[in-house]
Each structure stands twice: as structure tokens, then as C-alpha cells.
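=== RUN LOG ===
request id: a7f3
mode: sequence -> structure
chains: 1
length: 274
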Amino acid sequence: MRIDSHQHFWQFDPVRDSWIDSSMQKIAKDFLPQDLKPLLDQTQMDGCVAVQADQSETETQFLLNLAGQNPFVKGVVGWVDLRADDLYERLDFFSKNPLFKGVRHILQAEKEGFMMQESFLKGIRQLKNFNLTYDLLVFPHQLEEAIALVEKNPNQPVVLDHLAKPYIKDQKIEDWAEHIKDLAKHKNVYCKLSGMVTEADWNHWQAQDFEKYLSAALEAFGSDRLMFGSDWPVCLLAGSYEHVVQIIELFVKQLKPAERNKIMGENARNFYKL
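=== RESULT ===
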């Protein structure tokens, strides 16, 4: 099974989606399942995982509704307030829907120390009561704190989104690679090969720009804990859906067929229990 482990849907709202600035006009419009399905078919993808882009329960319900109407959307990573007093009730409510697979908070926008707050840690600890995963969205400078978060939750399935957004445009790798190695020592942590083209030079990237980052991720996590993700439609800022698939397929060509299959879908299926 070939799975795109990371994509988004939205009905564009300029106020809510203010992170889409003037340099991103290409994605300042609606992106819905009917827009994605032909791209999945074209690249022989069997399905996808829809990930939250807005921090609201309205967003979580919106994605679950779309997944319920479109069988190729195999699961949803939604948002709930992990620091809320009624978190158990909210997780219980959403978990009644079998398409609700995990939770994400946009940590890249938070200040230093956010992940170490007892209220947040308490929230992360609740997830395993519902067999939910956690998507870890951070920048490279937040990796040390992310490692501390993982150390406090050794049994919580976690997946690192977008390789923690390394500095591909500047081809900087050393500090990032060391932290990735340390994070990968925790066997409950997986990593998405996603969100890379938008960390490169949007207009002038080449496939080889990504090789050393992909190689570092493969060395750290192995083929059992990596998964392909497109980050569509955000990826459209720097390349087509097909381009993003080709970057990863070109890289995994060196691997055995069984390893390729894991990265291109089986690991995502197992991690999210699709």
C-alpha cells in the first residue's frame, strides 16, 4: 500500500489562514479532496493522511467529515487542546470516530519551554490511553527540547514532521544531523520525509539538494521508521505533487524493494493503524 502520510485540506479564510502571506498567493485558495484525488491516482498512491493546519476542534471535525466522505483519506491527525482540563473528554469524543488517528500542535510557533510545561506533558501522556499518535512539528533550534519531550514519553508513538525543517536552502546540516541522530535513538519516534521543497530555494532547487538530509535521516531512523509525505498543498509553493514524489522515489531507488515499500506506505499504515 502506498500512502501519502502528510497533506492538508482547507477552505481558505484570509483571517484564520494568515500564515499564508503575500509570498504564498499560489495556495491562498481552497484545497479539497477532489483536488488531491487525481494527483494520488497519477502517482499510484492508495490513500493519504489529512493533518491539521488550524488549531481548532472545528478543523478536526472538518477533516473527519471529509475523511468520512472520501475513502482514500485513510486517517486524520487533528488538534485538541492538550493543556485543557477536559482533555480526556475531548479525546474520548473524537476517538469514537475510527478515522481519528492522532494529534498535532503547531509547536514551531511556540516559545522556548512550551514543551516542558507540566500541562502540556500531562496532555501528551493522555494520548496513549486512546492509542493515539503524536505529530511533532518543530524547527531545528527546537530539537533539543523535542528530545527532552520524547524522553519523558518513551511509550508514546511520535512522528517528526518535515525532518524538523532543516536549512536546505543554505545547505547547513551539522547541528541538525546530530540532533536527528539523538532523537532517532528513541525507538518510539518515526520521521516523515516531507516538507522539504519549501525549505529549499523555491525556484531553483535540484534533487541533489536533498540527498544529504535524506541520507542522514535514513542512517538515523532506518527504513523501518521513515515515511513519505507530500505536504500538499504547501509543497506547491516550490514544486508539483509529482516532483515531491519523485524526490523520494529517486532516493529510495538504492534500497531493497521491501525497504522502499515501507517508506512509501507500509510504515505509515502501521504507525497510524490505517
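=== NOTES ===
The chain has nine helices and eight strands.
Strands lie at 3-7, 47-51, 73-78, 100-105, 133-136, 158-160, 189-193, 226-228.
=== END ===
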